[in-house]
Every structure is written in C-alpha cells, then in structure tokens.
Design a protein that fits this description.
Elements: E1 13-18, H1 22-40, H2 49-55, E2 76-83, H3 86-96, E3 105-109, H4 112-117, E4 121-124, H5 131-135, H6 138-144, E5 148-151, H7 158-165, E6 185-190, E7 200-206, H8 212-223, E8 226-230, H9 236-264, H10 268-287, H11 292-299, H12 305-315, H13 318-334
Parallel strand pairs: 1-2, 1-4, 2-3, 4-5, 5-6, 7-8
Antiparallel strand pairs: 6-7
Helix pairs in contact: 9-10, 9-13
C-alpha cells in the first residue's frame, strides 16, 4: 500500500488505536459520537448517557465543527483497539456498552502486529516511554509499511519514530537499498481529553512525505472531535503544554473556586456548574475576538468587588506562577520522548 492509499479508493477503511488509555479512549468515543451525529443528525444522542450527566451536557449543546470541506475524504468506518492487559480490554468493553447503537470496534490484546496489519490508519496512543516496545517488533515494522501513522505521544518527535521504524529519510529516498520498504507517513497530533465531548483543541505537524490527502484526513479526524491548528515542529512542545496539559490547570483553578464557594456556604455540585459555565462563557467571549484584558476590564469596574479579588491574586503572584507552570510543563514535554523503554 502506497503512503496515500489509506486516503483514496472506495474500500472501507480501518483505524487501529495502539494503546487505548485515557486519551486514546477519548478520541475513540469522540469519533463514535461524531459518526452517530453524521448518521442521525443528533449531536449527542449516541454519547453514553452517564457522560452527559457527569458533564452537565444537555442534548445538542456542544461545539460542532464544520466538516463540509472533507466530504471527499475516505473516512475510517471500522476501528480496532489494541491494549496490553485484560483489565484494559474489560474497561473498553464496559465503556463501549454504554453506547446506544452497536459500535464497529474490535478489541484485541497484545497483538500489535495483527492490529496494524488489519489497519489503513494507525493512531499511536501508548505512553511515550513505550514507543520502542510498541513499534520495535519486526512484524509491526513490516505491517506499518506504506501506511499513515498518527502519533499523539507527547515529546516524541517524527525523527524518533522514524528511527524506531528504521525508515530512510523521506526527503532523500522512498525505499531502502533492497527496494522493499515503503516509508510510513507520520503525522504528530496533540489533542486533549475534551475529545470525549468533541471539544478538543488539537495541533498537528507532519513529516515531509505526508501527502495533502493524508494531512486532510488527519484534519478531518480531529475536526470531528473539536478544532485543529497546524504548527511547526519547533512549536509542538509548547502546544503540547498549552493544549494538552492546561485542561488540568483549568480544573485546578475551578477546584479552588469550589473550595472557596463551599467554605462560604454553597453546595459543591451547584458551585461546579456555576464556575464551569462562567469559565465557558468567558472563553466564548475571547473566541469571539475579545482579548483577555478586555474581558477582565469589563468585569472589574471601579470600586467594585472584582478588582479586590484581582488584587489578591496579583499579591499572591498568580499570573507569574501560571506562566512559570506552562514553561515548566513545556520543558517536561520536550524530554518525555527520551525516556523510552
């Protein structure tokens, strides 16, 4: 199969997810929900009902990307998840059982080569330190030839993946001396856990031999679970921190607000809805074009209570602490790929 074969033709396509942990599962369930939306025109109807309750998401209230530009793309309709342990396989079966409609997902355990062989597109979603263990097996390397590999491994670069697959530099050659190897097209992506509710912010960057059709397929995949931005390789670790890690930062901020609200007498469950909706509203104002400074100034009226709270945050150096946390997070992301097994 040539590098762009997975993107062309009329045959059904298969996506294999190698390592279906928290983020891999979020992407899988986001794609399944997107497929249900495309089929039924009901944005959240096939999402597990307990997830909607947990996140306070009534039917229809979700960010919906425009996908009309990708109607010509041959999209995957079958899915394989490959996990290492029986516990992970059982977890996925329980989670898939929550969907109202039968899902085209086959769960396999410890059979990476077979899962890759059956796929047209591979989503690499193991831990960064498990890169060699996951891809280093000769049978996996052979099965990977000529296919599209999408890596969501933080800190693992495309040259590192090329090195594990023993690929030639795609900018200089398309074959090994014996002429057998067809290089794998590799695209790095960093989504976040909001994939599960189809609100991920994803960044992507590609290798030099990735075809336009391969890039458009990856854009479609992540647009179906949120938004996509293309960045350069040198920007990728920054975006890993900014897009991939900050949901935890935001959660910590809201958790702190909840502690204060509970101390003042509110129920935690009610405070959580208020705080999360308020954060969402502020984010929507900024997405509509307002700067963070403008949003802040509109709320902090002279002599009001908001400015007193802002002054306390500034006295505690919250601004610098948050900026330093992002810088530290970026530095940590850049070395994750060096801790390979």
């Amino acid at each position: 199969m040539a590098p762009n074969d997975a993107m062309n033709g009329d045959q059904p396509r298969t996506l294999t997810i190698l390592g279906c942990g928290t983020l891999g599962s979020a992407i899988l369930f986001g794609l399944l929900s997107s497929r249900a939306h495309d089929a039924l025109g009901k944005p959240l109807s096939d999402r597990p009902i307990d997830v909607k309750k947990e996140h306070g998401l009534p039917d229809g209230e979700t960010h919906q990307s425009s996908l009309e530009d990708y109607e010509d793309i041959q999209k995957p309709t079958r899915f394989i998840t490959c996990v290492r342990t029986p516990e992970s396989a059982d977890r996925l079966r329980r989670e898939l059982a929550l969907f109202k409609r039968p899902s085209p997902v086959n769960i396999v355990q410890g059979e990476n080569a077979r899962a890759v062989q059956a796929a047209d597109i591979i989503l690499l979603s193991c831990q960064p330190q498990d890169l060699v263990t996951c891809l280093g097996e000769p049978a996996v390397k052979k099965a990977m030839e000529g296919k599209l590999l999408i890596s969501i491994l933080a800190g693992v670069t495309i040259p590192q993946i090329d090195g594990v697959l023993n690929q030639p530099d795609p900018s200089r050659s398309t074959k090994t001396p014996n002429g057998n190897l067809r290089p794998t097209s590799i695209i790095r992506a960093m989504p976040n856990t909001a994939s599960f509710v189809r609100s991920s912010t994803t960044v992507i960057t590609s290798c030099s031999n990735a075809t336009p059709s391969a890039i458009r397929l990856v854009e479609w995949l992540f647009n179906s679970i949120g938004t996509v931005t293309q960045v350069t390789p040198i920007q990728f670790d920054i975006c890993t921190a900014l897009c991939g890690s900050t949901p935890a930062f935001f959660a910590l901020f809201i958790e702190s607000l909840l502690d204060g609200a509970v101390a003042l007498g509110l129920k935690r469950s009610e405070a959580q809805i208020m705080a999360a909706e308020t954060m969402k509203g502020a984010a929507m104002l900024m997405l509509a074009g307002e700067s963070p400074h403008a949003v802040k100034e509109k709320v902090a009226t002279p002599g009001g209570s908001t400015v007193q709270g802002l002054l306390e945050l500034e006295r505690k150096a919250v601004r610098g602490t948050i900026a330093d946390a992002l810088i530290r997070c970026t530095a940590a992301a850049s070395v994750l790929g060096s801790r390979q097994a």
